[in-house]
Structures are given as structure tokens and as C-alpha cells.
Q: What sequence folds into this?
């Protein structure tokens, strides 16, 4: 398979354009996504090819344009909605939780709600408390919505294409600091399946289960630990719902030690759910506690110094690995 | 209108009334659990509006949705079965009174969140426009929902994008117990349409023909790509839900509105102009009572839904 180097943002744009060419039912909605190209310029240029009907600038009315996406999906459209910053998705939570995620179930499987919410996510850009959150765990406790959280340009493209073709609502988290990251993306048409975690780096000592941007922090930790002769296995979950526990369990059975790393706050986070599942399902393989690396249970502050002290990075993973002790 | 069409309006209103009274009866008897919001007194709005719609047009409803559903062609057997939580109900027992849909009827769903259906209806209208389908959406909601943010946001987008939709506000004077005058500085809901550059009309919601005429104009505008807001002045004869004792309003007010019962008014009119005889109305009454009894028997005798496949129906 041949490939070329693309930015994460370009990979997303390419996925959207390909899906819009393939299926005329696909259209975009969001604030300033047309001429401006979205706050992060991800949709830049799509207006020229697809026109204002399918690249639809909205007023600042998240609750209603997210609900409109669900209503349009009921009648066969396949909307992709950009929420300018994932923090703003809270304005539309009723339409997601009580409508989009419930319709198929509560109307007795008569309907489907194929829609994608694109959610630029995370901190490290100094935007402050209302523009820097990682809200993946919010969606984890909502039955009826899938969650994708790619870490590489190739996965961003492949998972987004799968999301658009999925007949269910999908929350698609794009860590903002990844937009400027480049990586190989296959030249051929492809999709990346939901529910298949990827072992990014093999190791025998400790398993680090993570997703989105924290995959790169885990790889940096792996390099540092390797200098000391400790080999960690890094698992990129790629989707949180569906969750690939088989890959996690196989790794834990091998390493017997596990850390879950995420950028969101620790309490009630993705790590809490993962830790519970690991303890429930592979407890007898564990040689130590399940450790969580996560942000402080605070808002994300604006000052670079404070933000750095709030959000986890590779050093926290290294520390957690050391805290688990050497393999006995 | 032909005699048959007039009779059909009368019959559907009466069917809704008898159905709703039966629903209250079975709830009170403890035969079914949960809650229900019945629409007795508001039948002319549902029936008048839906009478000008095609089967291929869509309706989005709210928590008080049984009447809208019946008026759009929903089967009373399956609606009653849903209230009984049975497998044969429209949602297979998963939705209950406030959460039913039927795509074949063009009924896009009733909804337990006040104002929640307004964006859904608006999005459905956007989809019709994008697909260049010659259908319209009618969105029913109450005066309470007109104070949700979704009302303002959605009407604005429908106006700027010229969507084929008719917003029908059933102003029954009370958002649960809160009187219209406590929640609105303006004297009517329709005036708000001006703020979005949208046409609006107010009509007598107790007069099925007035509703029909008004909504017919709005639907015609919608087919040409212009949304409208129609405010129907009406009253709910019963409480907000089955547990409401109506302490917030007077018996005098209730009695005054009872004299404006849309079914009685229309029946009198049909007799007065010689369209129908008392015997005709009697026979309609017997017919709908049989239909509701049949629905009740169907619901009672229907099987419970299976509990094994619950987790498999969350995702498509």
C-alpha cells in the first residue's frame, strides 16, 4: 500500500471530501466552517467544491443545529457537525443525550440516526478553562453514541470515514494539538474499523492503555524507560465505544501491570472505566494496582505554567511505571 | 369540503377524545404504570392541522402527542399497546406514552423534552430541502416550549434557510401550572415570528375549520419554501399529567372553556347547517367507542416484550 505524508487536519479534510463525493447525502454544518474553514481550518476549501448547501455555515446555536443534524439524519441525510471547540458541545447535550443517542432504541429500532459530531478537543494551547477540556468520558456513560479518538493522521482519516458510514451517532474527538502533526496516510481508499485497538509499541514490562494525543506521550515515555531497560507496551484504543477489551486483556495477561493514560480529569474518567473493566475481567493476572495517569480534577487553566502542571505528560507516565515497581 | 371530509374531521376528533378518556381511566385503575399527558380539549388543533397534510408530509410531536399521532394516521391499537408496555406497541414497550414514532405514517416522533422536538423537526425540513423532496414538516409544541432556547434558535435557522416547515404552537395557557402571563411579557406567541422574519397567524384552536384554513395557508407557504408560525388558542380540559389536580386555575375558567369544546362546537355546527343528523353523530360515537375498546383489548392481550435483546437495539 503506497502512502504519503499528511497533516492530521488534512487527513480529516480528505476523509470528509471523499465521503461527500461518494455519498451526496453527506453534508457539513457548523460555525464558520465555509469560507473561514472552521476555527482550525479543517474544512478550508470544501465550500469551493461542494457549495454552501452542503458546507453550511450556522448561526451560533449549538443546541439547535446539533438537533437539526439528528432530525436530518432521521430522514436519510448524513450530517457531519463541527463543534468549534468540544467544550461547546455541552450547549447541545440535550439533543445528543435525549434525542440522537436515544431515538433508535426508544422508537423501537424503526429509525437510525447517522450523524458525526466533530469535536476539537484538549488543552496545551493556553485557551483556558472553557476551550481546553477533554470530555470523552462524558460520552462514555451515554448509551447509543459511539466515540472515536484518533491519534494519527491515518487513523483520523480511516476512523472518520467509518464514522460517516456508520448508521449511529458518533462523537469524533480531534485533539487540537494533533492537527499540525504529520504522518503517513495510505493513498488508496480505506476505512479503519471501530473497536479495534492498535498495539503501537510492544513491550513486556508494563501496559499503557491510552488514546488520542496521549499516545504520543506514552511513546515518549517508552523511549525514556527503554534507556533504563524497561519496555512498556503502548495500546492506542482508537475508539472508546466500542471498546476493544480483548486487546487490552491480552496485553495485561502478558505484562501483568497496567496504566491507563488520558488528558481528561481523573475522577470518573476513561481510566476509571478501564480500571474497573480490567479488575473485573483480568484481575488474577495483575501483579499490582491499575494506575491512572490523568489531569488534575480541576478546570484547565490558561497560564502555560499552570496548564502544564494540570495536564499529564510523558513524565507522569514514567513516574507511574516506576511507582508500579519492577517485575517480581 | 365534502360531507365525508367533514365527518372524518369529526370522527378523528372524537376518536382522540374517547381514546384519551380511556387512557385516563386505565391509568387511574392502575392497569398501566408511568404517566400520560392527554390532549382532551385540544383535538381540533391536531385534527385540523393534519387534515391538510399528505401522507408523505411529516409531523414532529411533543409530550402530549397521542392526538397528533392519531390525526397523522397512527393506529390506536399500537398506541394503546405502547402505553401498556407491550411488544406490539409502536416502540415495542421501550418508549411509552411520550416516545412513539411511525415513519410510514410520517410521524417522526413524540418527545418527552419540552422544546426538544423543535430542532428535530427543523432538521427534518432541512433534509427535505437538501433532497429536493416536495414534503413539509409540521412541528407541534406548547406555549411552554416557546420559552426554550431551541424555539428561538430553530425558528431563526428555518427563516434564514427558507425551510419547508410549519411551527404550530398550541397555546393552552399553561406550561404545566405556569400561566402564560407569568412566562411571557408579550401577549401572544405569534408575535415572536416577526423577530425571525417569519410569517405568523393566530387562530381559534377550538374551531377545527379555522385551524384547518390557517394551517392550509401555512403549509402552502411551506411548500413554496417559506416557514410559518401558527398559534392556536386552546385549552387542556384535563390536568398537565394524570397526577395534576389543577389548583392553579379556577373551576369557572375550566367551565367557560368546556363550553368551547371543539367536538361539541363542530357537532352543533354540522347539525345546524344540515350536514349531519343527530343519528349520524350517534353512529360515529358508537364506532369510535368500539375502536377504542378494541384497542384496549388488543393492548391487554398482547404479549410482553422480550427482555433478552435489550442491549442489541441500542445501535443500528
A:
Amino acid at each position: 500500500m503506497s502512502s504519503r505524508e499528511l497533516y492530521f487536519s488534512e487527513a480529516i479534510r480528505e476523509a470528509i471530501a471523499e465521503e461527500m463525493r461518494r455519498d451526496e447525502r453527506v453534508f457539513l454544518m457548523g460555525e464558520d466552517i465555509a469560507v473561514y474553514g472552521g476555527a482550525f481550518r479543517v474544512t478550508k476549501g470544501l465550500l469551493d467544491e461542494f457549495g454552501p448547501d452542503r458546507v453550511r455555515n450556522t448561526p451560533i446555536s449549538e443546541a439547535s443545529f446539533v438537533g437539526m443534524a439528528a432530525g436530518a439524519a432521521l430522514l436519510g441525510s448524513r450530517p457531519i457537525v463541527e463543534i468549534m471547540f468540544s467544550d461547546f458541545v455541552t450547549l447541545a447535550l440535550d439533543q445528543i443525550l435525549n434525542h440522537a443517542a436515544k431515538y433508535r432504541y426508544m422508537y423501537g429500532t424503526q429509525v437510525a440516526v447517522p450523524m458525526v459530531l466533530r469535536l476539537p478537543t484538549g488543552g496545551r494551547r493556553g485557551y483556558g478553562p472553557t476551550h481546553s477540556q477533554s470530555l470523552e468520558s462524558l460520552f462514555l456513560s451515554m448509551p447509543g453514541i459511539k466515540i472515536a479518538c484518533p491519534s494519527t493522521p491515518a487513523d483520523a482519516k480511516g476512523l472518520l470515514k467509518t464514522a460517516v458510514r456508520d448508521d449511529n451517532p458518533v462523537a469524533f474527538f480531534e485533539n487540537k494539538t494533533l492537527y499540525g502533526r504529520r504522518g503517513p496516510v495510505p493513498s488508496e481508499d480505506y476505512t479503519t474499523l471501530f473497536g479495534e485497538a492498535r498495539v503501537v509499541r510492544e513491550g513486556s514490562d508494563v501496559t499503557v492503555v491510552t488514546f488520542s494525543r496521549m499516545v504520543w506521550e506514552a511513546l515518549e515515555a517508552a523511549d525514556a524507560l527503554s534507556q533504563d531497560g524497561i519496555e512498556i507496551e503502548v495500546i492506542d484504543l482508537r475508539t472508546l465505544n466500542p471498546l476493544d477489551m480483548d486487546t487490552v486483556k491480552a496485553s495485561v495477561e502478558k505484562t501483568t501491570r497496567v496504566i491507563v493514560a488520558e488528558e481528561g480529569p481523573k475522577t470518573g474518567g476513561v481510566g476509571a472505566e478501564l480500571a474497573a473493566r480490567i479488575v473485573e475481567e483480568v484481575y488474577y493476572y495483575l501483579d499490582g494496582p491499575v494506575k491512572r495517569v490523568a489531569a488534575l480534577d480541576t478546570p484547565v487553566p490558561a497560564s502555560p505554567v499552570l496548564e502544564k502542571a494540570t495536564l499529564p505528560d510523558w513524565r507522569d507516565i514514567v513516574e507511574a511505571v516506576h511507582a508500579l515497581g519492577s517485575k517480581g | 369540503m365534502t360531507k365525508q371530509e367533514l365527518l372524518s374531521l369529526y370522527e378523528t376528533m372524537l376518536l382522540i377524545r374517547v381514546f384519551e378518556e380511556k387512557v385516563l381511566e386505565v391509568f387511574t385503575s392502575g392497569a398501566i404504570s408511568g404517566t400520560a399527558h392527554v390532549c382532551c380539549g385540544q383535538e381540533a388543533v391536531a385534527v385540523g392541522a393534519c387534515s391538510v397534510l399528505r401522507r408523505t408530509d411529516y409531523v414532529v410531536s411533543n409530550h402530549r402527542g397521542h392526538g397528533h399521532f392519531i390525526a397523522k394516521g397512527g393506529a390506536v391499537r399500537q398506541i394503546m399497546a405502547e402505553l401498556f408496555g407491550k411488544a406490539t406497541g409502536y416502540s415495542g414497550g421501550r418508549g411509552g406514552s411520550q416516545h412513539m414514532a411511525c415513519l410510514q405514517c410520517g410521524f417522526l416522533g413524540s418527545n418527552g423534552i419540552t422544546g426538544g422536538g423543535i430542532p428535530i423537526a427543523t432538521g427534518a425540513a432541512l433534509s427535505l430541502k437538501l433532497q429536493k423532496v416536495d414534503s413539509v414538516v409540521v412541528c407541534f409544541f406548547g406555549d411552554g416550549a416557546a420559552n426554550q432556547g431551541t424555539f428561538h434558535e430553530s425558528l431563526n435557522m428555518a427563516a434564514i434557510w427558507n425551510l419547508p416547515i410549519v411551527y404550530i404552537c398550541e397555546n393552552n395557557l399553561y406550561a404545566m401550572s405556569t400561566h402564560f402571563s407569568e412566562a411571557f411579557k408579550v401577549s401572544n406567541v405569534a408575535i415572536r415570528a416577526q423577530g425571525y422574519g417569519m410569517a405568523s397567524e393566530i387562530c381559534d384552536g377550538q374551531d377545527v375549520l379555522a385551524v384547518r384554513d390557517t394551517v392550509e395557508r401555512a403549509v402552502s407557504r411551506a411548500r413554496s419554501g417559506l416557514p410559518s408560525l401558527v398559534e392556536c388558542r386552546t385549552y387542556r380540559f384535563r390536568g398537565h399529567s394524570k397526577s395534576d389536580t389543577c389548583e392553579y386555575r379556577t373551576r369557572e375558567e375550566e367551565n367557560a372553556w368546556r363550553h368551547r369544546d371543539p367536538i361539541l362546537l363542530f357537532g352543533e355546527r354540522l347539525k345546524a347547517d344540515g350536514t349531519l343528523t343527530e343519528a349520524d353523530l350517534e353512529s360515529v360515537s358508537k364506532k369510535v367507542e368500539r375502536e377504542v375498546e378494541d384497542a384496549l383489548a388488543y393492548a391487554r392481550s398482547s404479549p410482553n416484550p422480550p427482555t433478552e435483546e435489550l442491549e442489541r437495539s441500542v445501535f443500528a
